[in-house]
Fold each of these.
Amino acid sequence: MKQHKPLESCLHPGCIEAGCDEAGRGCLAGPVFAAAVVLKPGFRCEELNDSKQLSERERNRLRPIIEQSAMCYAVEMCTPDEIDELNILWASVKAMHKALSRLTVTPEHILIDGNRFHPFQQIPHTCVIKGDGKYLSIAAASVLAKTYRDEYMQNLHNQFPVYGWMHNKGYPTRAHREAIKQHGITIHHRQTFHLIEKQLKFEW
């Protein structure tokens, strides 16, 4: 486990605060997943960090800890069709809205990883660039979004093994791009996959 600076428990102490993050923005295939997490007051977990800084094994170990320790959480997704219709940025925001709407406790404030968001039900929100490495609730959301999405892509791999989704999870590896050239795309590919370089330039 890499050593890292302990994350802040919340932005507004004494407030019911939900952290939100997404996984799968830069992929060629599969949905974008988002999670919303409300942690219990006093929750601490020294190992918890931005999911990208954790190994797959570490993320999978932390997932049940987050689920059992959270006041409430929800994980949702937007399909490739929704991504093609909205673009990846706003599909990510829509997935966050879906997750927030499923929380069993209404948050009084929302922490968003990134710098773009549409207001949700008039609840105040704060966008935090690289927030998954600063606040526990966003880090928790990043771990849930990532592990749920990875699991989803691993299950799809069984239907479409030639694309290597078990390993690349839909990201644009050389092997994945070569498989697309050789076999074409599936219903799980984003039709705008050739624009992925442009999509990754969205401010977030």
Note: Residues 25 and 39 are 25 Å apart (CA to CA).
Amino acid sequence: MIPTIQSKLPQAGTTIFTIMSTLAAEHNAINLGQGFPDFAMNAALSELVSKAMADGHNQYVHMNGLPVLREAIAQKIKQLYGNPVSANDEITITPGATYALYTAFTAMLQPGDEVIVFEPAYDCYIPAIELNGAKAVTIPLTPGTYKIDQALTRAAITPKTKAILINSPHNPSGAVLEEDDIAFLTDITSNTNLFIISDEVYEHLIFDGKKHLSILQYPHLYERSFVTFSFGKVYNCTGWKTGYCVAPPALMKEFRKIHQFNAFTVFGPVQYALAAFLKDEAEYLELGSRLQQKRDYFKNLMAQTKFEPLPSYGSYFQIYSYANISDEKEYDMAVRLTKNYGVTTIPVSAFYKNPVENKVLRFCFSKKESTLEAAVERLLKL
């Protein structure tokens, strides 16, 4: 008898990013779907990795992350958010932010717990919750603005609610948390046992004079939070899959119990390189203005088409409506654009557990200008 696996994710298939990127390759389409830059990362950072390997830094580093890197992150957090976190007790380097999110859920959740998830939501959230025997309680963000619906959120909290998951700047919409959102989170979590999981991988990709409101800068929220970040999104090296989690000591202690038996540690030479590169504050402080230029350039090009932009204040992405072009479902529209016009996008309906059709697609504008120009040239044939 050949053994079979009883799936822990029976409803899960291949991720939409893999599906659309494979389709893009098959049809030689310009891939504005998956969120990665097609321009070179900073050569100085690459050289620092090579130097670290040549200098012999090729063995295990500390389980919690290279101490000098954690110290550099702690200094950055204190400077940006006024929070004097402990490099030793509150920061752990991880193989990517997705790993950090999963580890936080695993450390915190028990079977039967509920987690509030705002949709559209990045596709790793709900599987991570379900794999830990918990239930994702999904709440739709307001269509168009993608603001948190406070009344729906308050009504969704039950004795089983264990945590609230937030993401700002938001993927896929580019929406950002405002002060009224922070006040609401403070109100609904005060004098409760609720945790907050905050996905802040796009912290520096923020536009139009907006400020990133990190959970780290609000002590009454941070005391109950796991906050995750990504170096890949900051330094245009998404394939490095290197990030970190920040949490109060008691929470981080439980996080590290899981981490030590899973990844244990992260690629060493990259950690040495990042520790040195973080000294150049301009590299991350100027990132928002550089990416805003790309967003604006793409938006100006897209003004020639029939697609209508929705506001994007951060991230790599902008959502566009095709409501005045077609009545097709979002997945069908995305497939047709790839096959017939050679431009790949992501249907926003894929960011819902049960697809919601608003006739919108996600475009990644973190590309070379020539890539964006070629994509819009093809879209003009629609």
Note: Residues 287-302 form the longest helix (16 residues).
Amino acid sequence: MLELGRMQTLEIVKEKDFGVYLGEPGKSAGGAEKGVLLPKKQVPEGAKTGDLLEVFLYKDSEDRIIATTTRPKLSLGETAVLEVKETSKIGAFLDMGLEKDLLLPFKEQTHAVKKGEKCLVALYVDKSKRLAATMKVYSYLRSDAPYKTGDDINGFVFEINPELGAFVAVDGIYHGMIPRRELFGGFKVGQEVHCRVTKVRGDGKLDLSAREKAYNQIFEDAELVLKVIGEFDGVLPFNDKADPEVIAREFKLSKNAFKRAVGHLLKEGKIEITEKSIRVLEETK
């Protein structure tokens, strides 16, 4: 069975000057009009009738099914991060690695995309039997990632829910999330992130953190705290008992991370804490 949007093995059933026609292996194509054209420039050198070729099927600009030996950046039901090449009145066109760009209709966009932007999409067949993209990818992502707690991963932020966290497509294909308690780094949709797996949930989805383990992160956080106090002329107008919201606003840190950093600086003799402030000691300035 010929199927749009997937790599499949087909047989050369007829040769023409402009290319070859392909059909299902072991079956007659029933004439060129029922075969699938593989244009001449795509035909491997020396290929002949009866040979098997691995091809991808899609529709050309005239709505005809056509084959290519080029492997696209994603197949039917898969997800991938693609770049927006152009926008138009009907939607955006994405680079999927083929001669014809992939349509991302307006109704399938979770926000209005712009030329040059990268977005996470899934490939599906629309009502008119054409390949199209959707940014509504949650149900397409997989929950069988090969990662375990402590592993480093690369991902793509595709949605942010302030009540839950940042949804991340790990490797562009697996479910991941930076929980709300970790949202202190100013994450945004479309951002590529390097994270650490903190937990593999029972359903296979990954909990992530963009921060190092506490005993490593504390040094970076301490430097950040010193820098911010410096911006307050060396005297922070609150101490480590400040509200979490104030700490998050000024440092983009959780209260626990802030207290660990302050404790480290205090132990190093770089600051002193008063009833209403934190002050950098003179020799540290």
Note: The chain has four domains: 7-68, 79-138, 141-209, 214-284.
